[in-house]
Amino acid sequence: MGRYLIRRLLQTVVILLVISAITFFLFWATPANPALLICGKDCNTETVAQVNATYGFDDPLIVQYGTYMQGLLSPGGRTIGSEGSERECPWPCFGESYQNGIPVWDSISDAFPATLWLATGAAVLWLFFGVMLGLIAALRKGKLIDKLSVGIALFGVSFPTIVFGYLLLFLFIVKLQWIPFPDTANAALFTVGPVKWLQFYILPWITLALVFAALYTRLTRANMIDTMNEDYIRTARAKGLSERTVVFKHGLRSALTPIVTIFGLDLGGLLGGAVITEQIFSITGLGKLAIDSVLGNDLPAIMGVVLFAAIFVVVANIVVDVLYAFIDPRVRLS
Amino acid sequence: MTESVATAATPARETGRPFLELKDLQVHFPTDDGLVKAVNGLSFTLERGKTLGIVGESGSGKSVSSLAIMGLHKGSRAKVGGEIWLDGAELVSMSVAEIRRLRGQQVAMIFQDPLSAMHPFYRVGDQLTEAYLVHNSVSKAVAKRRAIDLLDRVGIPAPNKRFDDYPHQFSGGMRQRAMIAMALMCDPALLIADEPTTALDVTVQAQILDLMMDLQKEFNSAIVIITHDLGVVAQMTQDVVVMYGGRVVEQGNVRDIFYRPEMPYTWGLLGSIPRVNRGGDHRLKSIRGTPPSLINLPKGCPFQPRCDYQEHVEGHSCVSELPELLQVDTGGHRVRCHIDHLQRERLFTEQIKPSL
């Protein structure tokens, strides 16, 4: 187990290095010219050359990549800026934004709580409703409620998030005015209190959860129907156990196992930012940061967002694998 | 122990009724393709301490009948007709809640393929104690002691260690033993064994059968053993029911079936047993054709399309008339065949017996 974890963590480092290299060189393969962006309106050849020298854009790409990675790999971080105006950039140093000079790590730290609230809140919603609807549908297979659940699920899967989100926003915020217009200040639970916080997040949660809830409904239903046809369910009934014990202890336990895997990966992916939902409801999370940095040709920010999101995906993978070994005794980690 | 558990949970026993009696059991499944007539009129009786064998090919209705005794078709789309009397209580009309009290306690089942019949995520020991805890108000420790005791009785080495193992950590033979232990947890008066040795090699098979007979003597339980292995039938049973296409085609005591069989299908079954004492030039015999579809059963005798003895029938049509299951002697030997009784005896002694 310990050895397994160490091996998986080492693999993680390699994966992240590969991702960083791909992101870095892909950026420079585009016709982007960050120097023009940095020097601003009154650019001339002189100022561009000066910017290039300050930021090291004249150096070979491999050297630039090495410099950048030094901030992440050496525990002391690195120094940024030209001679005379050097600044310490402590670990983990993703550099400073080309757009506004703010250290990227600070932007990520600021944006992450909003994304964390958004993703976990939506995850609770979709897990609860998805599994519940799927379970009811499976147990009442062929009945009206089953057909209704399958219908809702089909609707949820096929309704584009961007349309659904704006519809919710229009209906509840603009038309009915049940919920105040989103104010990013209300994203912080501990400063505004739970009521404003809930009002801020409820629509984004529903928007984000819809597609996932629909998928989980279908998945739970299919797994549960399969499981209830297993021989060991017949054995459980033959023992004289109550139907509730048969369904929840013997059936659901098996049916939910694959869902744990998918849930871990879905949540891990969303912790890196929910681009569309954050955009619709003006949530200043990682998804918004990602869009802004891409549109602004802001390499340090792009690197930061990509690597930060990648860490969640990779770690979620490990967590799921370890968890699986606890759930299914037939799986042994080695 | 056996008696106290059995009598506490069962209703007062009607006088004169056998311990287990099936009367004209019917199990039909409505499907999109039509009505699957899996069992059509199965009747037999069984007393405590005795063993009955149900033989037949796959799809002849053996397992479906046994599930009907457990009431496991309740809640599914299956239509169950006829009567099942167990110790004075009628099971077909019984509610699920009532029959649930009998399951695992009065009637227990040993399923085939214990790898899929045991829950992969729970420890073997916990799966054993589960039924015991439901039917008896005892502490977990008592149930655990009982489970370890039974695991020991069925011959699992180091049972107190093995209690905490998962099914996949057991070998095939051990899983089957654990399955038997699981069925015996509440001292069931009726034990239904569905192909208990099919997946096992011959040595283990013999051990398991010996074990079942020992335990039967000890607990005085009635056993219904479902199999297509006539060797198992010969070793274990007193009475035999031969099923074909969801119908009983011949039934009687084990001597009738093996020494005086009268139905051509039974002849075919006996003829297809591999024999070691036969010369090496003999090919393994089989019954030509395939079992009938249970949706479109032949109008006449279900075995007619595969029967080689139809020219001996006089005055009946095998194609259009279903032969009745008729008594052939003063014992319980019944046969469903249009061929005349004396003619069948002659055919068996002249044509079949010499080649067995």
Automatic annotation (TrEMBL), chain A:
<dbReference type="InterPro" id="IPR035906">
    <property type="entry name" value="MetI-like_sf"/>
</dbReference>
<feature type="transmembrane region" description="Helical">
    <location>
        <begin position="9"/>
        <end position="28"/>
    </location>
</feature>
<dbReference type="Pfam" id="PF00528">
    <property type="entry name" value="BPD_transp_1"/>
</dbReference>
<keyword id="KW-1003">Cell membrane</keyword>
<protein>
    <submittedName>
        <fullName>Peptide/nickel transport system permease protein</fullName>
    </submittedName>
</protein>
<keyword id="KW-1133">Transmembrane helix</keyword>
<keyword id="KW-0813">Transport</keyword>
<feature type="transmembrane region" description="Helical">
    <location>
        <begin position="151"/>
        <end position="178"/>
    </location>
</feature>
<keyword id="KW-0472">Membrane</keyword>
<feature type="transmembrane region" description="Helical">
    <location>
        <begin position="198"/>
        <end position="219"/>
    </location>
</feature>
<dbReference type="InterPro" id="IPR045621">
    <property type="entry name" value="BPD_transp_1_N"/>
</dbReference>
<feature type="transmembrane region" description="Helical">
    <location>
        <begin position="301"/>
        <end position="327"/>
    </location>
</feature>
<feature type="transmembrane region" description="Helical">
    <location>
        <begin position="259"/>
        <end position="281"/>
    </location>
</feature>
<feature type="transmembrane region" description="Helical">
    <location>
        <begin position="116"/>
        <end position="139"/>
    </location>
</feature>
<dbReference type="Pfam" id="PF19300">
    <property type="entry name" value="BPD_transp_1_N"/>
</dbReference>
<keyword id="KW-0812">Transmembrane</keyword>
<comment type="similarity">
    <text>Belongs to the binding-protein-dependent transport system permease family.</text>
</comment>
<dbReference type="GO" id="GO:0055085">
    <property type="term" value="P:transmembrane transport"/>
</dbReference>
<dbReference type="GO" id="GO:0005886">
    <property type="term" value="C:plasma membrane"/>
</dbReference>
<feature type="domain" description="ABC transmembrane type-1">
    <location>
        <begin position="112"/>
        <end position="324"/>
    </location>
</feature>
<dbReference type="InterPro" id="IPR000515">
    <property type="entry name" value="MetI-like"/>
</dbReference>
TrEMBL record, chain B:
<dbReference type="GO" id="GO:0015833">
    <property type="term" value="P:peptide transport"/>
</dbReference>
<dbReference type="InterPro" id="IPR013563">
    <property type="entry name" value="Oligopep_ABC_C"/>
</dbReference>
<protein>
    <submittedName>
        <fullName>Peptide/nickel transport system ATP-binding protein</fullName>
    </submittedName>
</protein>
<dbReference type="GO" id="GO:0005886">
    <property type="term" value="C:plasma membrane"/>
</dbReference>
<keyword id="KW-1003">Cell membrane</keyword>
<dbReference type="GO" id="GO:0005524">
    <property type="term" value="F:ATP binding"/>
</dbReference>
<keyword id="KW-0813">Transport</keyword>
<keyword id="KW-0547">Nucleotide-binding</keyword>
<dbReference type="Pfam" id="PF00005">
    <property type="entry name" value="ABC_tran"/>
</dbReference>
<dbReference type="Pfam" id="PF08352">
    <property type="entry name" value="oligo_HPY"/>
</dbReference>
<dbReference type="InterPro" id="IPR027417">
    <property type="entry name" value="P-loop_NTPase"/>
</dbReference>
<dbReference type="InterPro" id="IPR017871">
    <property type="entry name" value="ABC_transporter-like_CS"/>
</dbReference>
<comment type="similarity">
    <text>Belongs to the ABC transporter superfamily.</text>
</comment>
<keyword id="KW-0472">Membrane</keyword>
<dbReference type="GO" id="GO:0016887">
    <property type="term" value="F:ATP hydrolysis activity"/>
</dbReference>
<dbReference type="InterPro" id="IPR003439">
    <property type="entry name" value="ABC_transporter-like_ATP-bd"/>
</dbReference>
<dbReference type="InterPro" id="IPR003593">
    <property type="entry name" value="AAA+_ATPase"/>
</dbReference>
<feature type="domain" description="ABC transporter">
    <location>
        <begin position="20"/>
        <end position="270"/>
    </location>
</feature>
<keyword id="KW-0067">ATP-binding</keyword>
<dbReference type="InterPro" id="IPR050388">
    <property type="entry name" value="ABC_Ni/Peptide_Import"/>
</dbReference>
